[in-house]
Amino acid sequence: MRIAQEFRNGNVIKMGDDAFTVLKTQFHKSGRSSAVVKFKLKNLITGNISETSVNATDKFDEIRLDRRTMQFLYENDGMYAFMDQETFDQLELSSEDLDESAKFLVPEMAIDVMLYDEKPVAVELPNNIERKVEYTEPGLRGDTSGRVTKAATIEGGYELQVPLFVNIGDVIRIDTRECSYMERVK
Q1: 136 and which of 5, 8, 73, 152 could share a cystine (Cβ 3.0–4.6 Å)?
Q2: How far apart are CA 172 and CA 131, in angstroms?
Q3: Which residues are CB-neighbours of 124 under 8 A, at least 6 positions away?
């Protein structure tokens, strides 16, 4: 068991009979006595998001999710199919389960699927990925006042901001945690 103030974003805790992913934590100390932690939580089973405040010294069980490497196969009407690399079993996750991760998926990509009681609840992408730029406008020469960016569409259809020197066909490295451009791959 851990006390509430030790939990960080991404931890999975058990409150009552339900398991939750911690989306956001805020520590508040009011006066001399009581400190509280405000949690923004996502229920792993229902997917509902809620906010709650608890005493900073309240204790909760931390849950360890099973991690299984799977290959992304395809998307069909908001359902994403994955195949276990060892057993070749297939499972599906909805776009709500994937949240922001769905925009970086491409067929045959290997990712970690998180399971709670053998039920898939989330995916974990690598911290950075490389994708080819499918479309971007040409950069205007001489427009270098500060950090100037332009929109670019990468494989899979996701659009993000890139520096002016990035062109169609370039391969770029993307930080999946921040959904942002990191560098151009040589």
Answers
A1: 152
A2: 6
A3: 67, 101, 111, 112, 113, 114
What local confidence, expressed as pLDDT, does residue 148 receive?
84
Low-confidence ranges of the chain (pLDDT < 50): none
Residues 13, 2: Cα–Cα separation, whole Å: 9
Domain with residues 66-124, CATH architecture: Beta Barrel (2.40)
pLDDT at 18: 86
| Full-model pTM | 0.68
How many residues does this entry show for the chain? 186
Note the pLDDT of residue 146. Answer: 67
How does DSSP assign 103-123, residue by residue? Answer: GG--TT-EEEEEEETTEEEEE
CATH code for the structural domain at 128-184: 2.40.50.140
The confidence score (pLDDT) of residue 145 equals 64
- For the structural domain made of 2-62, what CATH number should be given? 2.30.30.30
Q: Which amino acid is at 22?
A: V
How many CB atoms are located within 10 Å of the residue 72 CB? 23
Per-residue confidence (pLDDT) for residue 143, from 0 to 100 = 58
Residue ranges per domain, the chain? 2-62, 66-124, 128-184
